[in-house]
Design goal:
300 residues, mainly alpha
Length: 300
């Protein structure tokens, strides 16, 4: 079942990326904070409903136990939200989600793991596809003709804007590695407790962020944040399936789910009216091939 859960998380996060980008407002310096509020709100509601329906006894101590993982995830996501104000989704998403390979390498180095032939091939192909897509997008951006002032503001390529996806990649990779340790390698915490701890922590961050905006007299109205709210729903659905996938096969799931950036690129082309080059289609095909190899590996 880990493959099904991983694919559901992958597609959910691809759609979340699309709506994150649509909701990112280059002129609003608090846009990323508002996104944190929306995601935290939806996750908090989901955590409460999930805990009630499944009649789970959740100890607040778990918030502390799982805090290192929650902190790195929430920090990386906030960095990602900020980055979307400056750079295209089709560039930031592949770079950010190369973090899956960082996680796989860390798990391989620190724990006793062996990979099947198809698993090795799948991980390599997926990672190569993601990296190739990022390189192609960077080259395309350098060939861009004269932009309008609004486009320059939206897609400025300063050192900071390019470093944000890279920083996300590093922090998220470390967070996913810690998650693998907690859920798969050492089984420090159960899947349900991990899910609830993360979502309740995100909710607390949303409360703090809301208070911060109010203290700064920054306007925040729910009815104006439809894109951020939609992204938050997809994010929460993805998180639900991700936790259970990671608990079963963390070393393979991490780079597999990182492939959602490829689907994010496809969605950005469809809904943001951009086009894919032949090289980009080849990269997308490579990632899909890698996913197929992982599927075959699970069946063997």
């Amino acid at each position: 079942m880990w493959l099904l859960f991983a694919l559901l998380a992958t597609f959910s996060w691809a759609f979340a990326d699309l709506f994150y980008k649509k909701g990112a407002e280059p002129t609003d310096k608090a846009s990323h904070i508002k996104t944190v509020i929306m995601v935290g709100l939806v996750m908090g509601v989901h955590a409460f409903v999930y805990m009630t329906v499944k009649q789970i006894h959740f100890s607040p101590v778990r918030l502390i136990t799982y805090f290192p993982v929650s902190f790195m995830y929430i920090l990386s996501m906030t960095i990602g939200y900020a980055g979307l104000r400056y750079i295209e989704l089709s560039i930031s998403s592949p770079v950010q989600n190369s973090s899956g390979m960082i996680t796989a390498i860390l798990v391989f180095v620190f724990f006793d793991h062996t990979l099947k032939l198809f698993e090795t091939g799948g991980v390599i192909i997926i990672t190569a596809g993601i990296v190739a897509l990022a390189v192609l997008e960077k080259k395309a951006s350098l060939r861009t003709v004269v932009l309008s002032e609004d486009e320059k503001k939206k897609y400025q390529r300063s050192f900071t804007s390019l470093m944000l996806p890279v920083l996300y990649c590093v922090v998220d990779g470390l967070g996913t590695f810690a998650d693998a340790v907690y859920l798969d390698e050492l089984s420090i915490i159960t899947e349900d407790d991990a899910l609830l701890a993360y979502e309740f922590t995100f909710f607390l961050c949303a409360v703090v962020s809301f208070v911060y905006l109010k203290s700064k007299k920054v306007e925040f109205k729910l009815r104006r944040e439809k894109n951020k709210g939609t992204a938050a729903v997809f994010e929460t659905v993805g998180q639900f399936f991700y936790v259970f996938a990671m608990a079963q096969n963390a070393m393979i799931v991490a780079p597999l789910i990182a492939s959602y950036s490829v689907f994010s690129v496809v969605l950005s082309r469809i809904f943001l009216k951009e086009k894919l080059s032949r090289g980009q289609y080849a990269a997308v095909t490579a990632v899909i091939t890698g996913i197929a190899l992982l599927a075959v590996s699970e069946a063997l």
